[in-house]
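[job 0412] stage=complex_fold ligand=flavin-adenine dinucleotide status=START
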Amino acid sequence: MVHARTLRPEPEALLDLWSLNELKGVRRTGDMLEIAAAEPYTGIIASPDVQQHLPALAAAARTIGAAQIQNRGTLGGNLANASPAGDTLPVLLAYDAVVVTDRRSIAVDTFFTGYRKTALQSDELITAVRFPLGRQVAFRKVGTRAAQAISKVVMAVSRTPEGVRIAIGSVAEVPLRARGAEAALERNDVEGAIAAVADDIRPIDDVRSTAVYRRAVTQGVLRELLESVRT
Ligand SMILES: Cc1cc2nc3c(=O)[nH]c(=O)nc-3n(C[C@H](O)[C@H](O)[C@H](O)COP(=O)(O)OP(=O)(O)OC[C@H]3O[C@@H](n4cnc5c(N)ncnc54)[C@H](O)[C@@H]3O)c2cc1C
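[job 0412] stage=complex_fold status=DONE, emitting structure tokens
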């Protein structure tokens, strides 16, 4: 809606998804939890299934804007908006979530293709996001305040049977996986991972922070989150 005011040419029409019941709700499907694309953050935070199985997603949703934004904002919008600072996006990457659209399933790892660009076709609708159950994920957002703050660094770390996933936002043109740090952890080299993550990211100076700060904070937050997912 913020962008809609400045789009030129002005859009001839806006499509309102809010009242489509098919795009609302949280449900179990086999060994996955599926969150419909237009379920607002408030519903995600209140869901007992999310609290039990995806506490890191509930934690991320609680940091988005403030109550007004949480009452209207959705996972579908956070994904399609594709801001590098989107707070749920590292969590989705750490869970290996799957983006379900009206025509296909897209691994979230391949969803972000460039600055505010996604794999979606222009007429493609996100209908849901699917999460695997039973994964331990830790989340941390670093912003200026507790509410109404765009992230300076936002990170989610998970431990999976295949290894550790490290996903970070606000440190590159897209939310990304820190592959170099993940590879160091395959060798059980925690200090190597902390060093490598500085090269995995491409932070910039902007109105919210500096590249130097973001690099240092990314390394500190990674150390903290690795501690909390230690088995
Ligand atoms: C004051 C304020 C504070 C904010 N704070 C934060 C914050 O702290 N963290 C954060 O991550 N974001 C924040 N945001 C950004 C925004 O609220 C979130 O990204 C939210 O998740 C967007 O969801 P929405 O449903 O409102 O999407 P909209 O804003 O309605 O849509 C965003 C884009 O996604 C597209 N879209 C929406 N749903 C779908 C769908 N199902 N399928 C395909 N395309 C779709 C729309 O066409 C549009 O291009 C903030 C915004 C404001 C105005």
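The CA atoms of residues 137 and 158 lie 4 Å apart.
[job 0412] exit 0
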